[in-house]
Write a structure and sequence with these properties.
2 helices
């Protein structure tokens, strides 16, 4: 009886831990994606790179 209660609590805690780790990895991944999107925009879509300089055709 005690072992069954312990096992249920252990499995419940383990599932909560795995869910928490999954949420953490998802948040880190989405944060990294946002960061890379911003870096890409600054690097390749910079407004100063789109201006044509006078005298150059």
């Amino acid at each position: 009886m005690i072992d069954e209660i312990f096992d249920r609590q252990y499995q419940s805690g383990r599932n909560e831990l795995h869910d928490g780790i999954d949420r953490l990895v998802t948040r880190i991944g989405s944060g990294m994606a946002d960061t890379f999107r911003t870096i890409h925009r600054v690097q390749f879509d910079a407004p100063w790179a789109k201006r044509k300089r006078p005298g150059l055709a």
